[in-house]
């Protein structure tokens, strides 16, 4: 477990480098990421490379005992490339180009851009691939940032047609699969198919979904091209990408197959301020600490992307510059976030950035040091973590007893066809995740493509639009308690209502029939009752379910329709449950599954790693941690102030197998 | 009075058709609408028709005893037409085309599209025009849906210039009429005139109004072309169009002259969710029943479009898929809506759709059957209506005693020059309509072009921007009590302030002078007083009126300006009155007019048809209907549960002549 | 001190002119502005002038004893110019042209438009420049109205490149100054630089700022071209422009150097309704009077633009037509606004407009007369002012004891990099101005470029992004009490964080270091305390300050960070203070500065001009004015009804020197 930092030697006088490197090492930092936006410095003119400065930077850093992550600079293509290929720009839905002057202006489908990227990546990999200090490569930077996955360029549309032709074979097959008989949308050739945007009204949802799948594949293709070059020229080094929190415009799990490590960029305050699915009152409440589940959700998600190997590549170290409001973290939070990441299993936490740069777009983005090179609060807290880490190296994170299934396609399907203006996938999934965390549980977030769920005691499946027979079999084989949320199995992979109605293939586990659904405006809530007692309420969404066979109805909505159904070890929640109801119901499932439930309040959260049980307090109050009497604390103590962390040793007997 | 259904044989296996047809007839359905989106199936390649499937579908349906409404498929032009005529697409205000991939992507001014439409309509009319089962034709589908009346293509702008040249004769006359001396907007040729959009600031309002009139005329021209073909090749059949609720981008009354029947598509829950003029609290309150005046308003409007003949072509039969929230109707509402339509005089109520289609854009739009071909709630309720209808055929709707004047140009003028961001025509008109309905009155909604108002006892004229001398004479000749709302007569037909100030020609009836107006933010309300007593309040809009001649002031605003004026049998309300004040004041007018007032609460509404008095309860509570003692009920009874209907027999003596 | 009126002879029959002119003079009006939108009447075809009507209009007006301000008509270029030069249109950020059909559709960078403007201005100036009745020229009309300063045409972008080349010399210097090493934004030629819009994410802030500076320079260049022509052909006449309230897209002070008089257009109700920085509750409260500081702010600002000479060129005389809500002014306000302008030192107050025009875009904009040529409320009140003025001519306004520094660049910098979605420059500056006015103070609003602050006792500097060493020296030299607001000195002129951190050069006055900042969502407030007592609170923005040297901390935020700092006679407020705290703190500063503080409540405001002390009551209640016992009132009396004005004589002894 190590600390790292993001550093931009090209942005500072060379005279500062050696001192920077020395102080990094002195602070306890061992890893430094560089070069990921430096294309114009590395290749100032087409084909003319300038390695001298990077050679020097690498030697300086390596000389100070630091290990290096090299970033490929493709997120910031230089201006001369645009002169050569004006068509390299991404286009919006109306065909407006996204201009030069920031970053990520490229279209993933532009082959000239691919070629130029290939050249710079190969040149860097050849030069530095075998350097002993270079331990890893980062491809590009935050794919999808600034809404850049989707482009509507001619190259993208042509690529889409080829992609469709490969997938469907004949245009007749596509017409059939898409249901183009509807509204006379039939095509006679793939060349007639355009992007599903700027139409008078809704596009055919499968048209939209296929475009998003295609766009996702384009990102993966671009990344794979880089990964393949790096593996040839830099054997033995980790290849990673720095994903973002809550960007889900491409299939992360699929890209994960081309990577060694899934790293991600953790800005808890920015995410809390901007995530649409966080209620405004929570946004204010957690403005200085981050919503207590915002980082953890992504930690648990990315741990599942590359077989458990993951880093935080960029860790917020002070105020950011890009949210609607940019408050300062509560003192202690930079340390707390760092420990939280380690508790969830991170190999590395790397701060963004060594020093705030006083110019250009990110001049208001803080770092470990102020622009005048004085250490800032985040720097001091990082130093403390480094000291603590030196005496404390927990083992691997291990597998949790509870899994939550997360699916990128489901998100896209919810966006394409929300069926209600305030409805989306993250709102549902995040509320389930939060409830499970309020129960004190460790959670693995897994893709729907997971091949084995063996070992899980409880598997939560909220809002998973498409459920294949294979998934049903794998879930059944797990023997776990299974809980499905509303809209699960609502669609086929071709974006239609399943034969025999939803939940489609899930019916073999949970015999039932969703005959109708409804979306509700905010402010509408429907009581959920059992045995005459009101258990809580639902809002936003409701399935009208007809139970079949031996399926029991455990609770009903106020108007008599089933709200909670059960068949064997599978349950179905037929509405979007309010937080309290969801918490109670999931607690019941967890207890039945035999996992240890420890309800925590406010900002307190638990996470075990190896032999250590961590408790993280996001505030706002101090909290008593649920440690057994006589527990041996290695961090903090039983009473935890806001913005701090405790850890105590646990044995294997503390968790029911 | 009959029930119908919308059916799409092309979307289902042919093997299902016969059973579908048989079950339709068994349910009591007698009319089936087909083919209105099937262009690509009927003409798969340019000029190559495929009639076989439609021949078969028609024979199957007719063979089961069903009568057929054939839709012309021009709302969904096939993809090959776009290959031939890329310029057929409608363009938005910035010149962006509206792409292929949904429907209604065509520009009404594109002559190549006219020609292609003419060909398919003529081909269909020739083939099926004399078929004995074909009783009617529907032209296109929901003109104006998805905001498709206005296009800014080169053809549209050229058409606009020709339209202007015809209307104004010379460019000098246009400059004079438009007042183009203002801001140096003078033209020296019609060729210099563009669309009134994408300008630095407001266009000249008459420029905008003329563009909307032109666009309306283009829709009417397109429809007339179809109607003329159908009359030639399909004599004796009704020609109709399915209008929408609250789409008012073209002159429905004018189009009505080319039709035999005005049909419309009634989605009470969707309209309630989406209509901007319904307050949010009402939106929630009526989310499962529809606002109690939303369907009725359109019934009463469309009854006036084709000399009293009207249908509901598409009746909501379950949740829709297109509103911001899409709740399920309260059980009973599908039946109740159907009876409500009949109470208002509908000849036919036709449900949308026979069966929910599991794919493409409307896969979440319910029908009488679920996608797995099981009957749904709406289907069951339709069956009940059919049984009830069998024993109950009321006579024609007859003329009401109360008229409300509705004018498409007034709506456009309010939109072009609202003079206040929250102000619009529907808000005012709908609140007047609602108040009259709360008084238990039957209402005819009439165009300003109505030639005779004879027989009406009370005529309400809210917010009618332009009042011609002819209209004044016709209103005067009616002898009715007349009530004018704010902004009545505020503008000339050339969109200017009338000479001598508003209310223009209305002055001869109501001598007064509107010297000034004001718009007010939500939250501002101004008391209205008479004889020291506060009668209620006004908000949003106020006219400052100077009474002239013998005009009396019946009430004043808190600051002394006249609020209610009267001259002879004409009254003027000088502000946008809050609901309670409007209700009280219109009640006074109704009583003075000698019409029977029966205040109803909540969701209860009354409507007489022939010898039957209907009471419709939209809920949320059960209600006691105002039937005389001993009334003979043919539907329901004196106490009416929510979401239900009652009807009792009345004699002519029950209504004061 | 005189009254004027805006008049459009071309919009009315010639037969009305003489009577209009006679009545103007009879009312007491002495100045009339004409012709500023009449290009198409003056030059109906390219190069063919029609002077006859204007000759006649001028003779008629002059003959009635009126003096004339002639407007150049360049704000409304005629349609034929667009035929000649289709590229004259301004383009939006996506390249969409702003079409013909309203006004201000031109691009300031289009040279063909410059040439055409030069011709019409020169032709007018030659013809009327020496006319004895012509006393002044107005250039164009409301530069910047309808957001028309920024254009993204090819000419604009080319001009920007030339502007940059002149400013930076070499592309290397630009890359260095802009920090283009960041994100590989380096250019190799000026020809590669585009407009900083339509990018995937933020542009480099200096890129944006330079584009706005360039655009401002283009406006100034266009105006200077006109001013130079006018000075040649119309010597001795004042050249002025009519600026707007709260339009700040170009450097008004810089343009002021080319003008003799700064006139502005005062629409207090429209500004109150539309200004984003006015809280909604105030918007409603002052809807009929205007926020009490809205006119005054601009009076005090424009007085500083042309060495003290300023007019109100257009004074609201009734409801306007362009705000979101357009209420009628409270009776008395037109008179009150007029006197308020005189109290602040106006030479002329000219009403908009003589008569409401019944057609085209402004048909709902009131004037002194209704469209049917009857005098309206505003006309009656203007007549009263004229009578009052006849017996009451106060001396010049003189210099105030309190200055507030306002800077256009600071506004742009706040917009380019607000660092918080709800944050902007006007919100901060206007709240400071309001607080100072609530203290009863007279205020001069001065540019940051002011060469001498001698004579001021108190200088307020809120949110001044860039503070140069020169400014620091000039402020120090003044000897005044100095109060700086948050973000003062936060940036260099090259839009970067100053070396050694903010407040940059201000450090020599106020030794301190802003190590971090934060923006806060609405609803968050942080207490400010001193000696254990809560003084008030701050929200929206906070600087984290480390005091250096002898700088004292006078108050702290709840978490201990300094909130108010002081060094010598300079104070720094480290947050966006809520109104009450700001009022108290500025009162302390004012008392220490030795200026006379008289707290006024609600809508009462004070302003001295020459020997007269004015009190203006914007309502809503009557108010007792703070006149000394026995004061001689020349207008009103001690108790002032809402919407009225009082003035009493004061001696020099009433103000502490
Ligand atoms: Zn290329
Ligand atoms: Zn565009
Ligand atoms: Zn064509």
Automatic annotation (TrEMBL), chains A, B, C:
Domain Glycoside hydrolase family 42 N-terminal: 6-391
Domain (Beta-galactosidase C-terminal): residue spans on this chain: 603-646
Keyword field: Glycosidase, Hydrolase, Metal-binding, Zinc
Any coiled-coil regions, as ranges: none
Pfam families hit by this protein: Glyco_hydro_42, Glyco_hydro_42C, Glyco_hydro_42M
The species this protein was found in: Niveibacterium microcysteis
EC numbers for this chain: 3.2.1.23
Family: Belongs to the glycosyl hydrolase 42 family.
InterPro entries referenced in this protein's UniProt entry, alphabetically: Beta_galactosidase_C (IPR013739), Beta_galactosidase_Trimer (IPR013738), Class_I_gatase-like (IPR029062), GH (IPR017853), Glyco_hydro_42 (IPR003476), Glyco_hydro_42_N (IPR013529), Glyco_hydro_b (IPR013780)
Segments crossing the lipid bilayer: none
Protein name, per record: Beta-galactosidase
Keyword Zinc assigned: yes
All residue ranges annotated as the Beta-galactosidase trimerisation domain in the record: 400-595
Reaction catalyzed: Hydrolysis of terminal non-reducing beta-D-galactose residues in beta-D-galactosides
Domain of life: Bacteria
Gene3D superfamilies assigned to the protein according to its UniProt record, in alphabetical order: 3.40.50.880, Glycosidases, Golgi alpha-mannosidase II
